[in-house]
Amino acid sequence: MARTDGAETRHHTLYLEIRRNLLRGSFPVGHRFKLSKLSTELGVSVTVAREALTRLSEQGLVVLEPNKGFSVPNFTDAEINDVAFVRTEVESIAVRRSIERGGIEWESGVVAAHHQLSATPNAALDEDPEANALWTSAHRAFHEACAAACDSPRLLAFRTQLYDQSEIIRQMAKLQRGKRRDVAGEHAAIAEAVVARDADKAVLLLHTHIERTRRSCLESWAAAQT
Predict the structure, then answer these.
(1) What is the structure's pLDDT at 178?
(2) Structure pTM?
(3) Residue-range domains of the chain with CATH
(4) In this protein, which residues make up the domain named HTH gntR-type (predicted)?
(5) Would you give the DSSP letter of residue 125?
């Protein structure tokens, strides 16, 4: 039987709600989703809740274990390294292609996205949830803008999936902002290189940017376990 429009809408709405909370770091590592509780709280059927979580598990944002159900992933050092490595390669391809193919409209989008990001205060989730959500959104929009003109829907979809996994790791790591790193300066340098159409420099800066985040995440996770 075909899914009704109402069921499809409820499924997508729930999927977006859980995804948004995952990316904000609202769930602790290892948190187990109880389908009955989730469906009751959000006013959907257990089937709709299961489908939304299944979709998230297919994207690597939620873990599905036999006889245990769905839970928030507890990334190992090896997984953090792997996500960073693959994201770096995919993001670099997308940005390089965008620099080669993007027009003035794309270039203007990068400038606007960076301006929005630079004007948005960067706060930790536990310090200021609202500010954190605004910065997280602006940060996502900036990196999306840099890759937007790559002219490959599949590449963009894969880039988004890797970005989401990286974002969950970053939020869970609860990085100490402003210590030993100028994140705003890193974004400014990337934006400048992209707008200048210097693909080699933009990719190098992007590699460095993601690598520093990877190291910071590993350090934060190690410190939390001691």
Answers:
(1) 46
(2) 0.82
(3) 5-71 (1.10.10.10), 77-224 (1.20.120.530)
(4) 8-75
(5) T
